[in-house]
Amino acid sequence: MKESVSLQAFNTFGLRAKAHQIKTANNKDELCTYWQNAHEQKLPTLILGGGSNVLFTEDFNGIVIRNCIAGIEITEDEQYWSVYVGAGENWHALIEYLLEKNIYGLENLALIPGNVGSAPIQNIGAYGKELKDVCAYVDIIELSTGHVSRLTNEACQFGYRDSIFKHHYQQGFAIIAVGLQLSKKWEPILTYGDLSKLSLETVTPKDVFGSVCSMRTSKLPDPTLTGNAGSFFKNPIVDIRIAQHLKAEYPFCPQYVQQDGVKLAAGWLIDQCGLKGHQIGGAAVHMKQALVLINKDGLATGKDIVNLAAYIRQKVFERFGVQLEPEVRFIGQHGEINAVDAIS
Ligand SMILES: Cc1cc2nc3c(=O)[nH]c(=O)nc-3n(C[C@H](O)[C@H](O)[C@H](O)COP(=O)(O)OP(=O)(O)OC[C@H]3O[C@@H](n4cnc5c(N)ncnc54)[C@H](O)[C@@H]3O)c2cc1C
Fold it and tell me: Is Cell division one of the keywords (predicted)?
């Protein structure tokens, strides 16, 4: 009989999906060994960090390998701190650890759940800062051979919630470390939310950290209490003509001009469709933040969340002619599946 273990504690949606086995890799050799063993047994593998950006649509018929490679090494020169971080370190704990040492530059990205090794994959971002602004390089390993290579910031091809890791280096590769370069010349970014209330003259990195943490805890549901994966959909980027048309019809539609079009706020579009609180099975749209889908009473299935996401996508398209795409990665029984196809 096949082994079966619960993934509930390993995904922030708190879904009760199962896998054959869960392995914890504390170094790159273990990572390769677990992957190669699974490969020999012809079982699918999934490298997992904190499980805060995945949706298990059903049970996973394979081996989950948790990347828990630890370690933080700091060097410095006159201008920069260079920080080499193992992929299994917790992202928020890293920020706290560095701030305690008076090393700053990551505070706008505080309280984003998950591991350091996952941060480059979707180029995590919040409150005006993205990982790409501080990432010097990413170390990856080829799991069949143990060969390690280093990708420079440019080679990572970072974009909005995007990087090369979403298009290449998916099967058979894992991120084992991230190199950060933090400038000693602190330039606070105070553009968003309550940060704009802070004084540019007196503000400190710890002030920014505190303000970001309190904004996030007041706005976003805590995954340890209510299962969720943060923003479920990406903010859509549309052609300027579509944006102008929307603005004419909906003067309050938030719009942000980008190099490649105009970014709309997915949460606003969902909210305008009256979907806050909308529920399908155990899945619901969060009452305060329409972009967040929740596992309402801890009883939702992956299918409930898929059905709710499909309903939202359809309603937003009917009203605004805009197609939403999930930010969350969908994991089916054999591995990642196309999230857009799953909700179309
Ligand atoms: C409450 C909440 C708030 C959030 N807020 C934000 C936000 O403000 N900004 C933002 O950008 N994101 C946000 N997120 C999303 C999430 O925190 C990030 O995407 C985070 O980087 C995911 O990290 P993780 O370790 O949990 O990844 P996981 O969910 O474990 O994995 C995500 C994907 O990466 C792959 N993967 C993981 N580790 C590795 C590795 N070492 N090598 C190769 N592949 C790997 C997995 O197979 C999976 O496909 C939020 C999530 C929650 C729950």
Answer: yes
